Amino acid sequence: MESGLITVTHADADGVLSLATLMMVMGDRMRVYFSHPNGLLSTLKRIESEKLYIFDIAGSKESIIEAARSGEVLWIDHHIWEPQIRPENVSFCIDSSAKSACSLVSRYFNITAFEKIADEIDTNTVTSSEADKVRKIIGHFKGMKDSNKHFLHFAKKLAERGLEALEDYREEIIAYEDELRSFEELVKRYSRVKQVNGIKIAVVRTPRRIPVYVAYNVLTRHDEAPFDIIIVTSRMSDRVELRTHTGYDVLRIARIFGGGGHRVASGARADVEDVLTAISFLK
């Protein structure tokens, strides 16, 4: 068993900000793994530590068993799920009413840090310049092969210097703004509208991965908006992301395919046509 602390956090803005918040409390002397819902189990199979923290990723019975091989485990998340088992050494802090995992990390460690920014980004209600910058910085790094290295460095800078660290990333922000324009054009070019069971659906299947929030925002300006269900995927992925303009419960669709998330923002490994077929059987 490895000594010290290992932190597993989601490879997105909320996960990075959760990590930065933790580092403000405990310093940055820890091993960090960035993961995602489909990869969490394989990540945990490689880990056995005296202390393990998991942020912003929903678990399963299997992943909880793997996590419990470590000594002291803290699991903080805001997705909708209920632990199927509760080992004595695993403490759960799960609140699906929270707008972000970062807000729960801040609450748990009694510190005010980046929770408002994380809330804005994770609910796609970005209004502050700071949240806009963080989302662009994370978006820029996400497209890189060594994205995890950049995420870690960014979290350390935020923990050390706070939001002043954002000024170090002007070039990355400008570069991402150029990428954004190309993403928006892809959404316009590769979106199609379908009606299934009286449900208005927009399907966006692009040649390369794009940020889901970009598709959501572009589609709000579509002539046929609002859409009950938005399905976003790429030719490079076997995963679909599900969103809604109208409050439709997309989580129940994701769960058909073993996915999860939130009521209005979910994802799963599935083919678009299979998702459309599943929707046709919903009542």
From TrEMBL:
Signal peptide: none
Domain DDH: 8-123
Protein keywords: Coiled coil
Coiled-coil segments: 159-193
InterPro entries from the UniProt entry: DDH_dom (IPR001667), DHH_sf (IPR038763), Nucleotide_metab_enz (IPR052968)
Record's keyword annotation contains Coiled coil: yes
A Pfam family that the UniProt record links to this protein: DHH
Domain of life of the source: Archaea
Name listed for the protein in its UniProt record: Phosphoesterase
Organism: Candidatus Syntropharchaeum butanivorans
